[in-house]
Every structure is written in structure tokens, then in C-alpha cells.
């Protein structure tokens, strides 16, 4: 069991993750806040999380319960939030002065909140060994205008899940090593070979396509944005159009991509994959937890290394913990975050969500537990392919993604507009969002 490995790691981390204070690690910004409660005073911290998978909710509840049992004077109230309205709920809470003390969110949604002054700068509060346990590109993704306003703990990639039996029957080799994934051109070629009878070669849940396409476009150096971080300039050129062009070709020319893709949510591809309707699917690697639960033992499914264009880059967009600047108890809130960041806790949350732990210590623990099953080593090692992207640093990215990019990609993949129309809609929409 992986907990044998993390027991030693947790012991080593205990000194730095003490629950009586914080070690300065530089980074500028706010100094570590003073103790915000009187000796013996009992307080309650609110903690909101948009975790939605049953296993993740269960593990989060266990960690909160463990904290509460050990800290009768600093209780944590766990608030479950729907991921569909998490952003809008935070907007309302920040504006009304009722934000939770500790906020679980994703890095891409934090930039605007950070610049508006709603999130506390945690730079001086992060222990040095926790800082060194997380790779620099991941820290960059939560750094806004030089301030670290979130602590990252796990992340996802868009992974290619394959039915190994169908690939073997078609004479298609299954890569296993990280960095050895198919190119997008190979995906297209192999999807055509796999499209037979009632089986379609490829599907991707693109009901809300923008974030996935923008992340995958980095594999062709398609960055979309450049210039001033808060309000960058948009460019939709050949690099940014390469991934949607490939998908369009697979949909309309090759007919090797399921047309139902544009009506499916990210995890909605699972039943079709399990039922043999799709030979391969692209999805957030979190669907592995559903496959481990729902897939019959007869289904030999694998996760392949990341798809490649000119590289295999994807956007670093980790799940994070932040502290609201409105919090009356920031010292205690940071103590709770440090408790959440203990190696065994990060490992348990990552395993439950089938996401990638961003701390090296938790990654080693999950790697021991997962072993070689289903191609997990390639995914756990893919953290090295995650890069910071200017899109996620832009203030109005979430608004633009929701109101412009998602419907524009839907129209393009539905055959209603051409590439020029797609580029125009994306560009005009960004300009409107920044007026």
C-alpha cells in the first residue's frame, strides 16, 4: 500500500507543516498574519470546495473530520459547491463580503480574483520545503503579478484513453513511455483504422470545448494571447487553429470522430467507451476513476502518453487552495491548508479524483500505488509537459471562455462557420470582454 511509503514522507514534512506557525519562504507581498484569535477562543473556518466525484468528496470529508478532531478550538465547516456555478458563487460572495475563509478552485479562475484584491498573497506563508516539493511551472500558474495567491495540490491533463483490444485487432502499436505519445496526425490515421461497423474511432466530450482545445493547442505552440498579462492581445493564427482543424477534418471528412462529441460533457464519453461505441476517447484523466469503478474487467483500457503536435505541452491549471482576503482568521486558514497539503492527504485526494498530485512526495506515493496498471506511469510523469499559459493569467479569460469561445467552437465543429469565422468570433469576443 502506498501509505507505507508516505508515512516516512509525512514524518519528514511534519516539522514544516506544523500547525502552530508558518515558515517564511520569501515571495514578497503580505507578511505572515498574526494570530487572529485569543488564547482559548473557539473559531470556525469556512471551506468551500467544488469537488464533485464521490471518492473525492469522501476523502475531503475524512481530512476535514481529522482536522476537526485534532483541533477542537479551530473547527472547519466543509461547504460543497457545484462546479457549474462555483465561479459565479464566488463573485457574489466576494462582492457581498461573505467569501469562505479557504477556497478550493482552479488556477485559471484565480487571476481576476487575485488582481481585484480578493485573494491573500501567501508568498511569505508557504514553508520552504513545501515550496521546493512543487515544480516551478506549477507555481508560475498560481502567481499573479508576482504574488502567489494559491497553493496548488493536484492537476489534470487531457489524456487519450484507448480500448487496447481494438487497437491490437487493428494492428496499432500501443505506446507506453511518457513523451512517446501519438501525434495528432497519428490519432487521425489510427481513428480511421478503428472506425468499423458500430465502432467510431474517436470521441471527445466537447459540449464546453474551449478550455480543452486551448490547452491542447499548446502542443502546436498556439498560445492565443501575448503582451500585458491582465489584458493581453489575442492572436488566432495557424498554430491556434491546428487542433480544431484536425477535429473538423475527423468529423466531416474522415467521419472517424463521433458527431455526438459536441453534445457530450467531459465525462459523458465514458458509457460509449465502456460499451465499445468509441475505440478511443480524449478526456480529463479524472475519468479513470469512473472507468475503474464502471468498466467491466473484460475491458482492457489504457491511458496513452500525451498527444503531440510539435511538442506534447498542455496548460498547467492545477486545483488550488486560497485564502480570502476578507478572512478574519488567515493564520488559522493557512494552518488548515498546510494540513490539507500533507503528503498522504494530497495522495489520497489525487487518487480519489484520478488526478496528478503536484507535490513530488505525493506523486511518489501515488505512483507506488498505481504501478503500471492502465498506463498510469506515463500520466504521472506528464507533469513535466505542463506549462504556464498566458490565457489563464488574463482577467477576463473565464468570461470570454464562457460567452464567446465555447459557442464559437461549437459552431465551427457543428459546421455552421468556417475557420475564418471562428477566428473572427474569438477575436471580436475578446475585444468586447476587455472594453
TrEMBL record:
Keywords: Signal. The keyword Signal applies. Transmembrane segments: none annotated. It comes from the Bacteria. InterPro entries: Bact_solute-bd_prot1, SBP. PROSITE patterns: PROKAR_LIPOPROTEIN. The keyword Transcription regulation does not apply. Residues 1-25 form the signal peptide. This is ABC-type glycerol-3-phosphate transport system, substrate-binding protein. The lineage of its organism: Bacteria, Bacillati, Actinomycetota, Actinomycetes, Propionibacteriales.
Amino acid at each position: 500500500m502506498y501509505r507505507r511509503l508516505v508515512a516516512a514522507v509525512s514524518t519528514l514534512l511534519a516539522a514544516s507543516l506544523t500547525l502552530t506557525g508558518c515558515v517564511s519562504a520569501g515571495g514578497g507581498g503580505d507578511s505572515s498574519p498574526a494570530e487572529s484569535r485569543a488564547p482559548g477562543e473557539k473559531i470556525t473556518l469556512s471551506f468551500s470546495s467544488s469537488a464533485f466525484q464521490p471518492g473525492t468528496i469522501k476523502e475531503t470529508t475524512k481530512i476535514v473530520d481529522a482536522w476537526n478532531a485534532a483541533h477542537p478550538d479551530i473547527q472547519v465547516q466543509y461547504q460543497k459547491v457545484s462546479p457549474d456555478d462555483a465561479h459565479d458563487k464566488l463573485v457574489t460572495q466576494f462582492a457581498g463580503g461573505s467569501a469562505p475563509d479557504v477556497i478550493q478552485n482552479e488556477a485559471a479562475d484565480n487571476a481576476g480574483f487575485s488582481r481585484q484584491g480578493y485573494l491573500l498573497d501567501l508568498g511569505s506563508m508557504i514553508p520552504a520545503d513545501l515550496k521546493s516539493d512543487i515544480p516551478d511551472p506549477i507555481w508560475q500558474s498560481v502567481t499573479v503579478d508576482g504574488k502567489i495567491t494559491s497553493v496548488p495540490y493536484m492537476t489534470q491533463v487531457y489524456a487519450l484513453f484507448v480500448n487496447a483490444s481494438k487497437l491490437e485487432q487493428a494492428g496499432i502499436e500501443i505506446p507506453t513511455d511518457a513523451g512517446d505519445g501519438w501525434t495528432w496526425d497519428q490519432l487521425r490515421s489510427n481513428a480511421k483504422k478503428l472506425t468499423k461497423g458500430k465502432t467510431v474511432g474517436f470521441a471527445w466530450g466537447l459540449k464546453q470545448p474551449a478550455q480543452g482545445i486551448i490547452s491542447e493547442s499548446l502542443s502546436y505552440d498556439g498560445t492565443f494571447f501575448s503582451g500585458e498579462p491582465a489584458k493581453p492581445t489575442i492572436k488566432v493564427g495557424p498554430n491556434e487553429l491546428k487542433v480544431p482543424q484536425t477535429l473538423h477534418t475527423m468529423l466531416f471528412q474522415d467521419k472517424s470522430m463521433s458527431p455526438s462529441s459536441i453534445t457530450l460533457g467531459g465525462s459523458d464519453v465514458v458509457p460509449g467507451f465502456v460499451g465499445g461505441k468509441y475505440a478511443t476517447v480524449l478526456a480529463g484523466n479524472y475519468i479513470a476513476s469512473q472507468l475503474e469503478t464502471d468498466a467491466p474487467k473484460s475491458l482492457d483500457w489504457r491511458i496513452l502518453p500525451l498527444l503531440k503536435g510539435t511538442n506534447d505541452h498542455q496548460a498547467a491549471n492545477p486545483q488550488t487552495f486560497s485564502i480570502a482576503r476578507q478572512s478574519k482568521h488567515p493564520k488559522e486558514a493557512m494552518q488548515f491548508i498546510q494540513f490539507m497539503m500533507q503528503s498522504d492527504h494530497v495522495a489520497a485526494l489525487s487518487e480519489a479524483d484520478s488526478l496528478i498530485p503536484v507535490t513530488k512526495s505525493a506523486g511518489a506515493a501515488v505512483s507506488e500505488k498505481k504501478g503500471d496498471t492502465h498506463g498510469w506511469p506515463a500520466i504521472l510523469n506528464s507533469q513535466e509537459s505542463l506549462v504556464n499559459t498566458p490565457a489563464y493569467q488574463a482577467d477576463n479569460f473565464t468570461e470570454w471562455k464562457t460567452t464567446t469561445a465555447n459557442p464559437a467552437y461549437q459552431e465551427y465543429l457543428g459546421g455552421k462557420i468556417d475557420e475564418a469565422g471562428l477566428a473572427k468570433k474569438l477575436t471580436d469576443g475578446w475585444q468586447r470582454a476587455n472594453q
